[in-house]
């Protein structure tokens, strides 16, 4: 059977398209090969990391340094841990054990209290940087969700509002409902633009007074 040039071009085009489609269908997405599942230097976290070695030693022998390390005494840390444990605990997997609620809270408190970078926390607690980043995000959210109803609770009934008003009148005469704003500075890391400009983050802490003290707080950093 004879084919003219136009028919040959059409056949070749169809064959080429079919070949391309077939190749694309069989091609699997390339994945970056992992060098290791757990970085070798992090495998000793449970025996050599700060949460496993330093903190227990400070708790037993030097409570003052424990307070300096986490900016709170052991009793306060334990109270926070019991409140947050259900929200921040993770299940072990078939591949590796989960980081304990104790260690997750210690990493987050150290990061929040001292201004260390997440990179520093990762080095000191022998955890991956991306792991520390996820832990800090999850635990800080849990801190707000668990503690806000306990310590920043708003009156919900008329009787509660009247009680708050009577208490406030005695303790804070003409102050209930008043607001106060306080500028707060914290050191900022060198990799942030603000550090190049002025070396600090400037935050504005707002409080609203109620009959039992502070009812709500906000702290937008800029």
Description:
The protein is mostly helical and 222 residues long. It folds into two domains: 40-150, no CATH class; 155-218, no CATH class. The chain has helices at 5-26, 45-48, 50-61, 63-70, 74-88, 101-114, 118-125, 129-151, 158-171, 193-197; strands spanning 179-187, 200-210, 213-218. A three-stranded antiparallel β-sheet has the order 1-2-3. A hairpin with a 2-residue loop joins strand 2 and strand 3. Helix 3 packs across helix 4, helix 5 (74-88) crosses helix 8 and helix 6 (101-114) crosses helix 8 (129-151). The longest helix has 23 residues, at 129-151. The model is unreliable at 217-222 (pLDDT under 50).
Outline:
The protein has 222 residues and is mainly alpha-helical. The chain has helices spanning 5-26, 45-48, 50-61, 63-70, 74-88, 101-114, 118-125, 129-151, 158-171, 193-197; strands at residues 179-187, 200-210, 213-218.
């Amino acid at each position: 059977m004879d084919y003219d040039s136009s028919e040959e071009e059409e056949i070749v085009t169809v064959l080429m398209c079919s070949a391309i489609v077939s190749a694309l269908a069989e091609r699997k997405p390339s994945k970056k090969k992992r060098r290791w599942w757990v970085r070798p230097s992090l495998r000793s976290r449970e025996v050599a990391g700060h949460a496993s070695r330093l903190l227990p030693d400070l708790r037993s022998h030097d409570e003052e340094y424990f307070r300096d390390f986490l900016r709170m005494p052991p009793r306060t840390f334990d109270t926070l841990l019991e409140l947050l444990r259900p929200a921040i605990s993770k299940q072990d997997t078939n591949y590796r054990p989960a980081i304990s609620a104790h260690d997750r809270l210690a990493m987050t408190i150290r990061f929040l209290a001292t201004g260390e970078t997440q990179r520093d926390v990762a080095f000191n607690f022998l955890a991956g940087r991306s792991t520390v980043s996820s832990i800090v995000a999850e635990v800080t959210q849990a801190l707000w969700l668990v503690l806000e109803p306990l310590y920043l609770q708003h009156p919900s009934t008329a009787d509660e509002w009247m009680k708050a008003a009577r208490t406030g009148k005695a303790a804070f005469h003409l102050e209930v409902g008043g607001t106060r704003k306080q500028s707060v500075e914290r050191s900022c890391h060198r990799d942030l633009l603000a550090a190049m400009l002025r070396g600090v983050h400037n935050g504005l802490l707002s409080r609203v007074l109620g009959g039992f003290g502070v009812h709500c707080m906000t702290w937008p950093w800029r």
